[in-house]
């Protein structure tokens, strides 16, 4: 076994043998606390940040990935007390993710990933962390007046899914995302052949899927200057096969064989759009139990408890879902490169 894979396997054993630690709520930090629990359950993040020690990093209090590395290590310890994470919160505050402010979990999640790209001096390692979440897509834009087609290859770090206002499912949301969409009116795009903005038809196809699939259920709507939250039910499975769930989502260039995903973390929002609270359901392995983390309070729960976050009137609702592709540890030698 290579030295790198031996280190990762050792990391998994430490992770699985330890219990979960809560996180105190400092200055309205429930959003960050919840994301830290999901990062802790995503063992690949900690394993890659552990490698950064050899490469070195700027030891300053503004460096978000350095403070993230430290707090994730503290969360893996066997202490029954809540993990100290004030330095991580202060590093975010010094990078304009302010304390004493209500935040959107998806926005903070993407900000943390961006800080790792900007502030890690080991750029290949930083890219490897980003690649954990990288969804590569091909977008085709067909002009409906001259039939010319523009093609753009790009990527996303999460799958933003529109939620219907009555009842929906993860499968239904993903199917809608990959359906052809007509862009008209204010959504018209510029056509180089016609020399003007024209109606068009847009199609998004997958080029590659990530190790960690972050799904963002877009439950907030802006209307007339006000933001409201949709509490409608959205069901989601504990595991699914992407190739069977959304068969028409794949580009002809897609070459991955394994498209099976297993849920390991759920970011939950309760309350209203402008005033709410975040908690998390996480598990540290497919063969491990589910836990519920509400700041410093942590308790073991069941899959049925996780399903209670599907939604409904005056209920706490799933807002972000974290799925892992492939086997849990790939025979003890996981491949992390994108």
From TrEMBL:
Gene3D superfamilies: Cysteine proteinases. GO terms for cellular component: cytosol; nucleus. One of its GO terms (molecular function) is cysteine-type deubiquitinase activity. SUPFAM superfamilies: Cysteine proteinases (SSF54001). CDD domains: Peptidase_C19. Residues 21-326 form the USP domain. It comes from the Eukaryota. The lineage of its organism: Eukaryota, Metazoa, Chordata, Craniata, Vertebrata. This is USP domain-containing protein. Coiled coil: none annotated. GO terms for biological process: protein deubiquitination. Pfam families: UCH.
């Amino acid at each position: 076994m290579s030295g790198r894979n031996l280190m990762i396997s050792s990391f998994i054993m430490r992770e699985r043998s330890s219990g979960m630690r809560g996180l105190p709520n400092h200055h309205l930090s429930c959003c960050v606390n919840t994301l830290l629990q999901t990062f802790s359950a995503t063992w690949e993040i900690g394993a890659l940040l552990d490698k950064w020690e050899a490469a070195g990093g700027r030891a300053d209090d503004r460096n978000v990935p350095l403070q993230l590395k430290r707090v994730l290590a503290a969360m893996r310890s066997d202490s029954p007390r809540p993990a100290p994470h004030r330095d991580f919160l202060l590093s975010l505050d010094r990078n304009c993710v302010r304390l004493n402010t209500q935040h959107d979990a998806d926005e903070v999640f993407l900000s943390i990933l961006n800080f790792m790209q900007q502030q890690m001096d080991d750029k290949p390692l930083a890219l490897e962390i980003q690649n954990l979440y990288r969804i590569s897509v091909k977008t085709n834009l067909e002009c409906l007046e001259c039939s010319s087609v523009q093609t753009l290859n790009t990527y996303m770090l999460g799958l933003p899914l529109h939620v219907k206002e009555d009842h929906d499912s993860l499968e239904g949301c993903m199917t809608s995302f990959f359906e052809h969409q007509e862009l008209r009116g204010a959504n018209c795009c510029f056509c180089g052949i016609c020399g003007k903005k024209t109606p068009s038809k847009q199609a998004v196809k997958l080029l590659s899927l990530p190790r960690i699939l972050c799904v963002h259920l877009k439950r907030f709507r802006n209307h007339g200057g006000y933001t409201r939250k949709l509490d409608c039910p959205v069901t989601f499975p504990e595991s699914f096969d992407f190739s069977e769930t959304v068969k028409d989502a794949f580009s002809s260039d897609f070459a991955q064989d394994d498209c099976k995903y297993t849920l390991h973390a759920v970011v939950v929002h309760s309350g209203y759009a402008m005033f709410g609270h975040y908690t998390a359901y996480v598990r540290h392995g497919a063969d491990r139990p589910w836990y519920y983390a509400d700041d410093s309070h942590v308790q073991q729960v069941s899959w049925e408890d996780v399903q209670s976050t599907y939604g409904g009137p005056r209920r706490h609702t799933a807002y972000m879902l974290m799925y892992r592709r492939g086997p849990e540890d790939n025979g003890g030698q996981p491949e992390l490169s994108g």
